[in-house]
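Exam revision sheet. Question 4 asks you to relate a sequence to its structure. Input first:
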Amino acid sequence: MRSLSIAATGLQAQQLHVEVISNNIANINTNGFKRQEVEFQDLLYQNVQRAGTNTSDSGTVIPAGIQLGLGVNAGSVYRIFQQGTMNLTGGKYDVAIQGRGFFKIELPTGDFAYTRAGSFQPNTDGDLVTPEGYKLSPGINIPGDTVDVTISPQGEVSVLQMGQNAATSAGKIDFQSFINEAGLEGIGDNLFRETAASGPPIDITAGDAGAGTFLQGYLEASNVDPVTELTNLITAQRGYEFNSKVISASDDMMKTINEIRN
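Answer key, structure tokens:
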């Protein structure tokens, strides 16, 4: 009975759907987190009676035929890079991106990763780093006697040092974009890595057409909407229940068939 295996694919697909939703909800308070969506697709079809097949010598054909679908699977799990809301933190090293773009982060391996979470702090050498200690690239060094820091919407970092009357430049925060952001690979710690699907990073200038700008003292919240996630969770749960009912009904039918045979 094919319905058992078909319904099983539905159970597996809805289980994956719930797992994706649970990860979205778990990261509802993660800065810069981008929610994921599951895209389902139907599986192959079995032609029980092919449409267009001749039914007589006079040329009559079957108008529709009989095709039996063999279930469903997840075609992709992709990220939605919709802008998250801006949360005021007041932190002088907190920076949010309004619009498109990513901060570039240098990993300990020498490779680069990208993030929308702009929570930085100077390390013991004065270099701005992520909460995990990964350096912002290109590097921004904050002198030890700095009393105030200003980050412009274009990424210019100015520091006012003790005993000085005017601020001096400490560098500029650059950011990158990708032709296909949904193709980025999440590697944890709010970081993404480029892939063949995302394409290479593209240097963009803050404020240019299509590029974002920086906002000091703010952090970008996740773009997870609890109402949407709960609605999706209910839909996935109902889908799981319906598929389990199909398995239960198929089992009852098989039981009836066996009783008739005996």
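Marking note for examiners. The radius of gyration is 27 Å.
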